Description:
4 helices; two-stranded antiparallel sheet; two-stranded antiparallel ribbon; single chain; 4 strands
Amino acid sequence: MVLTHGEPHPGNFIQVGPQPLLVDWDTTLIAPPERDLWLLDPGDGSFTDAYHRATGREILPPMLDLYRLTWELSDIVGCVTRFTAEHGDTVTDRAEWEILNRSLSVSAE
Length: 109
């Protein structure tokens, strides 16, 4: 178990000089490293391979799949919850609709 951020996507990094800093730690948990690594790895294994070389810890592909699926399902639930309640045609609604469509497309593959 390690300290994980929960959402280590580009929107949660800021550049301070030469050093990128991870911000917005409201979803922090002690969890398996796969909780963050699934989102950082471009899908070719390069990031998880580098993590293994740096830490000696073997990364489990089924755990990466579990956290990827958990993220997708969470997006779907959040969007469906939004659209089953009263809503308008706002910029946020349109963005959520795109997330829902993308999530359903990915989940169907």
